[in-house]
Each structure stands twice: as structure tokens, then as C-alpha cells.
Specification:
Layout (H helix, E strand, L loop, with lengths): L8 H11 L8 E3 L8 E6 L9 H11 L2 H4 L3 E4 L3 H13 L3 E6 L4 H9 L3 E5 L1 H10 L8 E2 L6 H17 L5 E5 L4 H13 L4 E7 L4 H8 L25 H7 L2 E5 L1 H15 L9 H7 L6 E6 L6 H8 L5
Parallel strand pairs: 2-10, 3-4, 3-6, 4-5, 7-8, 7-10, 8-9
Antiparallel strand pairs: 1-2
Helix pairs in contact: 1-2, 1-7, 2-4, 2-7, 7-8, 11-12
Length: 319
């Protein structure tokens, strides 16, 4: 079971060394909005080679594996971005990659997986979630890279926290999208090891606020779930194996509406020329809604969104 002692600063620093040659050190840029409720900066993980932070965790896990573990290839369960991260690294190593995806996965992300040489197995959402919970898909061989609760994945994600603290040591609040909790846990573990007074807050869509609901209940609890264009974050419940870690390392949790997410995507495009996917805009939406204080960093976790959705959002519609 993952606990705050599982992911140490040393683990995160070691992960950063392993992935240094394959990821981009992404910039922090100020959100160009003068009347915002906080001093908001964007950590642009959408600029990674695959358009998502997932390259960090995938690389951390795969580079830690032995050649024997990788001999039969790798596989993961992902709605798209972790799939791309695992496929990207597999392609670099010349090994096979298979991805279990839910039937709600957007075509933009599926096309990217195919482009990177990944083989796709599409299953109902419930079956996909079972793979996330059990860490296994019947009949598959090769190394399973869990998209969330693999300690090496979490440590790789934590490298984002190291960069934030190096580039903005006076940050007061960090807002992070919450999908399964691996990104939030990694960043919070890194930041709190360096400066415990920084508030790290998770953000979910209010249509799929599994962690927010669980945190209010004090245990993993079921939340109402409605699929939306925010396909890379939110869930039906907090993962049981992540709960001991995320419930302790995160200072708070909040939700935002789909309208607020769409407005944040539009604003970032118009003011900063930054393209974020639904999950990638959650943190900015929360900051604009006043869910932070002082100097705030919003993690823009990814930018893999199709043009049809962007067109609707720019026309003030909800995809």
C-alpha cells in the first residue's frame, strides 16, 4: 500500500536523473490576465513531446526495468496520454507496446497511440477500470506499467514539483488535475519535502469528482459519474491503493464545472496561445474561480484535444 513514506525526495531525484534525456523541462509562464483573483502561472506540460506529463512517469518506470522484464514488451491501461507515454518510450527502445483503452477514449488520442506504434485493445469503461484496480489484463504478457500507482511512475511525476520549486521558490499554491492521483501525489511529495508550507490542491470536474467525494467522506467513496470532454481526469472513486498517500499529501481538493473548464481553455488560447485539453485546463479553471491564494502555479497537464472540440469551445459551446 502506498503511503507518504513510499515516495521520498531521493526517489523523485533519482527518477529525474533517469528521464533527463527524454523529457522536456517545461517552462512556467504567467497567465496574461490582469484581473485574476491570484497571481497565476502555468506549468506547461502540454509542451512535452507527446503533449502530456505522462512521458515522465512512463519513462521513470520503463528505465528502471531490467532487460528481462522488457523482453516481452510493455502494456498499460490508459484513456490516451499514459498510453502515448509508454508507447513513445517503447518505440525508442524498439519493444512492443499494447494499450488497454476504455470505449470512451477520444479518437485524437487513439490516433496518437497508433502513430507511436502501440497496439490498441478497446474495452468497456468498467472493464478498463478493473484493469486499473487489479493491475492485470487476462491474456497479456510483458511488463505492466500502471498509469497511476506504480511508485516509479509517481516519482517521475514528482520531477514536475522539483522544477516548480527551482523556478518559483516563493510559490504559495499549486493546483494539480486529479485523475487517479499519481500526478498529484508525485508533485505534492516533492514540494512538501522542499517547502511544507506550499498548499497543493487537487482539481476534478464536478461531473466525476471521485477524490473530492472520497475526501469529504474520509474514505474511498463512489461519486456520480458523467463522461465529458474532460476525459483525462476525474473518476468514480479514489483508488484504494492510492488513498493512503493522496489523502495525506494533498492539502485540499476542489471541483470545477465543465463551463469553467471550457472558459479556461478558451482564455489560455486567446491570452497565452496555450492549447490545453480538458484535464489540462482544470487547474487554471480552479485558479480563475478563486480556489487558490497568493502566487499560484497551475499544472497544465496535457494538450491533446481535437480541433472539433476546440472549435466548439471557441464558439462558447461545451463539446
Amino acid at each position: 500500500m502506498l503511503t507518504p513514506n513510499t515516495i521520498t525526495l531521493a526517489h523523485i531525484q533519482a527518477a529525474r536523473q533517469r528521464i533527463a534525456g527524454s523529457i522536456m523541462r517545461t517552462p512556467l509562464v504567467r497567465l496574461n490576465v490582469d484581473d485574476a483573483p491570484a497571481d497565476i502561472y502555468l506549468k506547461l506540460e502540454n509542451l512535452q513531446p507527446i503533449g502530456s506529463f505522462k512521458l515522465r512517469g512512463a519513462g521513470s518506470a520503463i528505465t528502471q526495468a531490467s532487460s528481462d522484464q522488457l523482453a516481452a514488451g510493455v502494456y498499460t491501461a490508459s484513456a490516451g496520454n499514459m498510453a502515448q507515454g509508454v508507447a513513445w518510450h517503447a518505440q525508442q527502445l524498439g519493444i512492443a507496446c499494447t494499450v488497454i483503452v476504455p470505449d470512451t477514449a477520444p479518437e485524437t488520442k487513439l490516433a496518437a497511440i497508433r502513430r507511436l506504434g502501440g497496439t490498441i485493445i478497446k474495452v468497456p469503461y468498467a472493464t478498463w477500470w478493473e484493469v486499473i484496480v487489479t493491475h492485470h489484463y487476462a491474456g497479456m504478457s510483458g511488463l505492466f506499467v500502471h498509469p497511476v500507482s506504480d511508485p516509479a511512475v509517481i516519482a517521475g511525476n514528482g520531477s514536475i514539483g522539483l522544477e516548480i520549486m527551482e523556478d518559483m521558490p516563493d510559490v504559495e499554491t499549486v493546483l494539480v488535475p486529479y485523475g487517479g492521483g499519481g500526478l498529484c501525489a508525485g508533485i505534492a511529495s516533492a514540494i512538501h519535502a522542499i517547502k511544507p508550507t506550499v498548499k497543493v490542491i487537487s482539481v476534478e470536474p464536478d461531473t466525476a469528482a471521485g477524490f473530492y467525494t472520497s475526501r469529504a467522506a474520509g474514505r474511498p467513496a463512489e461519486a456520480a459519474f458523467t463522461p465529458s470532454f474532460v476525459d483525462g481526469a476525474g473518476s468514480r472513486s479514489a483508488l484504494a491503493d492510492m488513498w493512503p498517500l493522496t489523502s495525506q499529501v494533498l492539502d485540499d481538493a476542489c471541483t470545477v464545472s465543465l463551463n469553467q473548464v471550457a472558459a479556461a481553455i478558451k482564455l489560455m488560447i486567446e491570452r497565452n496561445r496555450v492549447v490545453a485539453e480538458g484535464a489540462g485546463a482544470l487547474a487554471t479553471a480552479a485558479a480563475l474561480a478563486g480556489r487558490s491564494h497568493g502566487k499560484t502555479v497551475c499544472v497544465v497537464s496535457g494538450g491533446n484535444i481535437d480541433s472539433a472540440k476546440i472549435s466548439k469551445i471557441l464558439a462558447n459551446e461545451i463539446p
